[in-house]
Amino acid sequence: MKTPSFPHWPTALDVRWEPRRPYAGILNLKSCELQHPEADRLVLEAAARLSAADLRSYPHQDVILNLLANYHGVSPGYVMLTAGSDGAVGLLVDALARPAGRLVLAEPNFEGWRHYAGLRGVPVTAVTTLSGTPPVGDLTPLADAMAAARGSAVVSIANPGSPSGLVTDSAEVYRLAELAERHGHLLVVDECFGEFVDVTHAPLLERFDHLVIIHSYSKTFALAGVRIAAVLACPELLDYLTRFRPDSAVSATGVAMLTQMIGHADRFREVWRDVRLIRGHFVAAVLSAHPTWSVLDPGGNFATFSTGRPEIPPALVRHLAEQRIRIRSLTDLPGLRGCVRFSLASDANMHTVAAQVAAFHPP
Ligand SMILES: Cc1ncc(COP(=O)(O)O)c(C=O)c1O
Questions:
Q1: What number does CATH give the domain 10-38+266-358?
Q2: Which ligand 1 atom minimizes the distance to the CA of 86?
Q3: Domain 57-263 CATH assignment equals 3.40.640.10
Q4: Which of 20, 56, 155, 330 is most buried (most C-beta within 10 Å)?
């Protein structure tokens, strides 16, 4: 490792990351991009309608912010854009977790949280919120950590859970928000996969000003390459956060693409319905070939299976890699021992994958 000779953050030198690599000729079912023929059609049509002004001009956000407020059912003033969820997480760590002095992290969670907390040297209290085999959600350790934390903390959960695919019901999220309020914490809920299973936390914003929602458009609107997400929170909090200028990293092209996707929300609702059907076919085929496995429902545009044995996921990853299919073993993640995840692609692709999974003989 090279240490810069200029003054720097020593904590950043302990942080590791891998640049994304292209996977030409490989069916990539690891990163949960929305791979669906109708979604592809919609993004390509939208890209063809981009104008020169969408590329040459600085972006204006007033129209899109109103459209998004309407889409999420919140008042204008409750929405801010960031360059993907990464942009949101980095901002929340800088602007809120650093001054608070602690991040309470419900695990497993989006890797970005540990990354940005590591960069900034923010202490992390990590709490596993899954227990048992197959895993089920268990928020008691998180509630205990929130009650025990000295001073204020940023508390992060993902709902639907990622990469588990389990959903925390809205009454439980409400109780966490109350707990955050009581103890002076800020609760952040990442609902990246919400639309696939009809989960949204936006209505809670009317009641709680200690609540922040991160809503990515990467998966739901097939815009992962565009890097665009929203932070939903009360206007006072957004007034503070916008001073960090997240708008400067959001492109006019991204704004134009998202504007068109919001206009096609009804067609995307059909896509999300179809993704649920594709998931149902795929899960049934896998479980009929491996009846001792179970699936973690409701998932998202992915299906996570509990195989019951930690050696199975890496062996399955290797087996499928030989067929040029890339999936993710989760067995090293807290609470997900023996689990493996498939992002979903077209029905035809998932038939092929299911056949390959059926041909797999667990070690
Ligand atoms: C829970 C969760 N949030 C956010 C992201 C990434 O979102 P974005 O593409 O907006 O950075 C992921 C990616 O898989 C995720 O699992």
A1: 3.90.1150.10
A2: 11
A3: yes
A4: 155
178-199 residues labelled b (16+ CB within 10 A) or e (exposed): ebbbebebbbbbbbbbbbbbeb
What's the Cα-to-Cα distance from 227 to each of 40, 219, 322, rounded to whole Å?
16, 11, 31
What is the distance in A from the centroid of ligand 1 to the CA of 362? 30
Give CA separation, 61 vs 190, 197, 230, 253, in Å: 22, 28, 12, 11
Say whether pTM exceeds 0.70.
Answer: yes
**Candidate from 17, 115, 219, 330 with most ligand 1 atoms within 8 A of CB, to mutate:** 219
What pLDDT, in 10s, does the model give residues 104-144?
Answer: 999 999 999 999 999 999 999 999 999 999 999 999 999 99
Q: Could you tell me the distance, in angstroms and rounded to a whole number, from the CA of residue 111 to the centre of ligand 1? A: 9
- The domain spans of the chain are 10-38+266-358, 57-263
